Amino acid sequence: MARSRTQFVCQKCGSSYPKWTGRCDNCGEWNSLVEQPAETVGKSVVAKSAASGKVLTPQTMRSIETDDRSSRMPTGFEDLDAVMGGGMLAGGVVLLAGQPGIGKSTLLLQMAHHISTATPVLYASGEESASQVKLRAGRLGAEASDDLQFVASTSADDIAATIRSGAYRLVIIDSIQTLSLAEITSAPGTVSQITNSSNVIIRAAKESGAAVILVGHVTKEGSIAGPKVLEHLVDVVLQFEGDRYGGFKVIRAVKNRYGSTSEAAIFEMNERGLELVKNPSAALLAERQNSDGSVVLATLEGTRPLLVEIQALVNSTNFGYPKRTASGFDLNRLNLLIAVLERRTKLNLSDKDIYINVVGGLKLNDPAADLAVAMAIASASAGRRLDDGVVVFGEIGLGGEIRSVASVDRRAAEARKLGFTYAIGPRSKDEFVRGVKDLRQALIDYLQK
Description:
Ribosomal Protein S5, domain 2, Rossmann fold, 26% strand, 12 helices, globular, nine-stranded mixed beta sheet
């Protein structure tokens, strides 16, 4: 009897090996190889395709006809429509990823309820039963529509057949990691199941013109779980970020074939579900007290200007090695700014514990946050504070110089709208911004109290 062939597939990157090894040579991940039956035995797939292929009939761009399926479906959240490039596109496949408990299922059920008022929607869950989803729908007020239908299934074959039926314009699958194909013997969540199930679903979506939203799990590092090829298969990749226990939650487009990746939608969770934050700057600064170590930063979330409070705390260390901690800000960037402060100013921070906090649970990737963080540290260390009504922004170079940043006019306009008197930042034509040449000048001129 012929011995069945097996292969070992990395669950991180999808590379396969003829025998088990402790570490994947491709991605460097340890203990990620799982034994699976070889999908092809004997004659290679390449050789088979050479004999079975057929000549395709191409079309010119002028001869291709468009239909009404290319119209957009509004999600019910104006900012989320902007993130997607104008709404859900018929035949488009969206991958939504985020931490467990952050609100993915809540958001999708709210979207499904809104879209079902105009067109049939199918919500397919492989993680929850019908009664569990009904409880959430009752809390969100999403159980009245007859066009919002639900199935509990983990079969990718059945869901793909339902999509091809053409009865629904939007199908939500929660989640892709729970689906499996009957012809593949490996367990749900493995690389082969995720890749092949996704291909079957995407092919059905393109044939029928139905929009599909796939929910994806994330790893401990925050990246999307499963093979990287999953992100290449879909049209839009949305990242749901924030603190699942409170604070603001942000949705960004990591990849978007139909729109920009620079937009962001900011949400807040309450008893009625997720709601868009109309004026996040005012909400973030509502409880601020102007004390030493507190600086208001004019930053950008996508193309939206946002004012956020940066807090710094500086204490004498009780150990030989000072501690540096940052919440919402890159720790390596913080260490670099501390080094610039010590080298380019007279501050001595080598024996100080330094803590940085971005209020509201936001995570800053804006280089314009450098000056605000540096001035917050200097303010906490010297026991001095900035004047009331001052916002700060600017990138700091290794020489201590203040470099220009993008969208100065938008940052200044947002600060004016909330009643701030002036901004400290790089030199600009805007009279609202008081330009500073370097970090030393900013500290000497504005940290007086």
